[in-house]
Each structure stands twice: as C-alpha cells, then as structure tokens.
Design goal:
Elements: E1 8-9, E2 14-15, H1 42-49, E3 54-58, E4 63-68, E5 71-81, E6 90-93, E7 96-99, E8 103-104, E9 110-111, E10 123-128, E11 133-136, H2 142-146, E12 157-159, E13 163-165, H3 167-176, E14 182-186, E15 195-196, E16 225-229, E17 238-241, E18 250-254, E19 259-271, E20 274-282, E21 288-293, E22 297-298
Parallel strand pairs: 3-14, 5-12, 5-15, 11-13
Antiparallel strand pairs: 1-2, 3-4, 4-5, 5-13, 6-14, 7-10, 8-9, 10-11, 16-19, 16-22, 17-18, 19-20, 20-21
C-alpha cells in the first residue's frame, strides 16, 4: 500500500501496515512465528514446506510459491514491504482468513469492506501479529495493480509490510488454503522452476493433497499424538490452561523444544476464529494435564 498505510502502535490497539487490529489479548495465544532468521534454517524450512499445503514468500524476488507436501506447484508475482517498511521474515502459519476486510490507516482514512478504494482488496490471509501482517489482494486502481504486475522485482517493493497479491491470485489462494497453513517468508536468490500464474488463476496448479491445507502435518492425523509447540524457537512460549478458555489459569508454559501428548480434541474459546483445543498431558512436568489451543500445535517436528 504505497501511500495508504502507516505503522502505528498503542498499548490497546495495533494499527499497522494493513489495517486496524482488534484488541490483541488473543495474541498471547496466537500461532508461532517471529521476525527472525528462522527462514535461513534449511531443515526447518523444508519441514514446514512439507506440510499438506504451504506458501513460500520470497521478498528478494517478490514471488510467492505454492507447495504441497514439499513439492512446489505454482508461483506468482507479489509486492512486499518498501524500504523502511519491510515484510517480517520468519516461519508463520495462517491464523485467520477474512473476506472483505475493512481498512484503516490510523490517520483518519478508511475504506469499507470490499469498497472499490479498499487497498486490501476482497480477501486476506493473516499470518503474523493478529490482523497486522498477511497476504491480501489489491483494488483495481492502476497503481495498485502495477505494484503486483511490474516486471522489475524492486518496483514491487511497494507495501507497508503486508504481502500484496493480484486479485486473481489471492482469490485462488484463499480457496485452496486453510487456517494452519504454513507461510515461510525469507530472502532467496531464486525461486522454484514451476509455472508462473501471475494474474491468471486458471494457470495455477493444485494437487490432491490430503488434509487440504488444514495445517497439514502441523495438526495430528490421529490421537493420541506427541507434538511440539508452534511458537518461536527463540523465545516463544505456549500457554497450557486449566480449561479451554483464554481466561483460565495457566498451568504450564512450553517452549519450542518441549512436547505434549495430545489426548482429545475439544471445543473452547475462539482464537482468531478457531475454536479447536486439545486436552494434553505434559510428561516433562509429572504428567500435568491441561488444554492447548490448536494454533499452538506443531506435529511436523
């Protein structure tokens, strides 16, 4: 959003590159991901791109690639953060899908849901800090479309941190991924040698992967299952609560390297629209029991 957005923050509300965020109490329970060098860990990247479906965002070439079970199938042009407004690098997962997202630049300018002048377009897939950073579309204004169609990648350094997509590409992507789909953002010299479907959804390829992007291997295929925590490997912590609610007492906190046994899936408080929780046991803490939100589960490692 070349002239549309400004990153601002307050203790109650985050208004950044893309739009006004909701109250961020939910961020304490959000999915993992960090502005870090985790994208440089080749083994870790391979693990996440090996999920049922995954997205690789290359902020150097400004191309996105769609993967199934580790196999790249399609790629397309994108716009990422302009100088001084960089797109966060790291390993994330989509934690919310939104149709017709409203927009607010934090300075009194706004656009309604699916309005013709809304710089977010008609679809958004949020992957970092609530509804702050995500993949989204653009409106049909010439400069907006140019930001995702220009031949020179540096001319596509155009957003305030989000990942812009051509309207056809974001509609296709929205239809083919679900909450839990990994998003790996980094800086690579090149992209996989697969078909380019920029601005042409009919040319994008999708396979027959099971689990249809619903987290892929991040979520267990059966229970019980021993799984790691989907948090930053640098300093992230997953809260284990006494009940499947955001207000319940925290009985334990597990780091990236720790694991829990997932015994049963239950329904609880929604976090970014997802109500799935797991009743877990923590062997490292004397088989302590509690509840873990599904967005914090990583069964890929």
């Amino acid at each position: 959003m070349r002239f549309y957005s400004l990153c601002l923050a307050t203790c109650l509300t985050l208004i950044v590159s893309c739009k006004t965020a909701k109250n961020d109490s939910q961020l304490k329970e959000r999915v993992g991901g960090t502005d870090s060098n985790s994208w440089q860990d080749a083994q870790l990247v391979e693990t996440y791109l090996g999920a049922a479906r995954a997205i690789r965002v290359n902020a150097r070439t400004n191309m996105a690639t769609f993967y199934e079970l580790g196999v790249p199938l399609s790629k397309w042009k994108i716009a990422t953060g302009r100088p001084g407004k960089g797109t966060p690098k790291g390993i994330f997962v989509i934690h919310q899908k939104e149709t017709c997202p409203p927009w607010n630049n934090g300075r009194g300018k706004s656009a309604g849901a699916c309005a013709a002048d809304n710089p977010l377009g008609r679809k958004a897939l949020w992957f970092h800090q609530g509804r702050i950073y995500g993949l989204h579309g653009v409106n049909l204004a010439p400069d907006a479309l140019a930001s995702v169609t220009n031949t020179n990648p540096r001319d596509r350094d155009a957003s305030s941190g989000c990942v812009r997509n051509h309207p056809e590409n974001i509609e296709w992507l929205y239809a083919n991924v679900k909450v839990g789909t990994p998003v790996v953002v980094g800086l690579w010299d090149d992209d996989p040698d697969v078909g380019d479907c920029s601005g042409n959804a009919a040319a994008c390829v999708v396979g027959d992967s099971p689990n249809h992007g619903g987290g892929g291997r991040l979520l267990p295929e059966s229970l019980p299952a021993t799984c790691a925590m989907n948090v930053s490997y640098e300093n992230g912590l997953a809260n284990i609560r006494a009940e499947p609610t955001l207000t319940a007492t925290i009985v334990a906190q597990l780091s990236y390297s720790q694991r829990a046994i997932l015994n049963e899936k239950v329904t609880g408080d929604a976090v970014s629209g997802l109500k799935d929780w797991f009743q877990v046991m923590i062997p490292e803490e004397g088989d302590k029991m509690g509840y873990l939100h599904a967005s914090l589960v990583d069964c890929a490692r």
